Amino acid sequence: MQALWHIDKYSSVLKQCVQTNVPNLITLKAAYSLISTGSERLVACGRVPIALATQMCVPYMEGSFELPIKYGYSMVAESSDGILFHTMHPHQDVIQVNPSDLYPLPNNIPAYRLALISNMETIINAIWDAAPLKTQQIAICGFGNIGALLANTLRVHLGIEADIIEKNTWRRAKAEALNWNTDSKTAYDIIFHTTATSVGLQYCMNHLDVEGKVIELSWYGDAVTNIKLGHAFHYKRLQLISSQVSMIPKSKQKEYTYKIRKDLAVQWLQHDSYDMLISDLIPFKNTPTFFNALRKGEQSKGLIWIIEY
After folding, report:
1. Residue 67: in which H helix or E strand, if any?
2. CATH code of the domain in which 204 resides
3. Of 133, 153, 242, 278, which is most buried with the most CB atoms under 10 A?
């Protein structure tokens, strides 16, 4: 029984866990877990602000954001009788969880794809916050984990073709290979921002049409974000909207619960096109090497990485 631990801001290791006989907990074998590269890089580098430690805590986490820490949150695990569940749990090969924390999964979707559920819930919130229309000019700034999931969801489930704004050569070429336009326009009605950089956010603000809006999906950790609001921000009546997954928008709360939102995420993931966004299945034993490279910004050739146990 092993778990991935971020020991300090420079290194990660696999550590042995003690399996205990706690009443009412169910023991499951991990199958796959998603690496949410943006958030997990900040955690691994010890860049979570102490003031946000409570909000950033995840179920079954151990340690603290000051490091060391056991972290991770979107896992597909299997029971002894072969039933698959989605649960929130750090990266670990055998887990013990409360039955109330388990979401049973259908057997008609590949298990590795179902590890995308948590980030798909982020995508759903972003779409709710933006309320995009086919008649609007829409772009996504940043074609990584979230950007790629969002672009594919807009295309497959809403019939919306968003332009991709991406400076990374490999990711831009990947977007083009998947038939997304990477030639940006002068002005957009909606830009989804995912790069977690001031430069990217400023680019988005500079390329909005009148009453255009940026939907901010990035999480910046302790980084200071600088944008210029003295030029077009007021006279164009621009909007900068925070979108985050932990709360369902008020406009949707009468219609949706967290359970219904997760149901929708699973329903949308039935489409096989999401597989083309998964760059690699990483053996669990190789996760320390992966995270050590991630800290250094060496994981540029890829979109989505999933741990295989």
Report:
1. none
2. 3.40.50.720
3. 153
Q: What range does the domain containing 200 cover?
A: 123-250
Q: Encode pLDDT of 265-290 as tens digits.
A: 999 999 999 999 998 899 999 999 99
Over residues 46-57, the pLDDT tens digits come to 998 888 888 889
Whether residues 107 and 134 share a domain: the answer is: no
Q: Write out pLDDT tens, residues 231-241.
A: 889 999 999 99
Determine the 3-state secondary structure of 139 from DSSP: strand
Q: Is 233 exposed, middle or buried (0-12, 13-18, 19+ CB in 10 A)?
A: middle
Q: Are residues 106 and 133 in the same domain?
A: no
Strand ranges, E, within 150-196:
163-165, 188-193
Per residue in 203-217, pLDDT tens?
Answer: 999 999 999 999 999
- 83, 44 contact by CB (below 8 A): no
The DSSP secondary-structure symbol of 55 reads: H
Q: How far apart are CA 292 and CA 173, in angstroms?
A: 26
Decide if 257 is inside a domain: no
* Strands annotated E in 120-165: 138-141, 163-165
* 261 inside domain: no
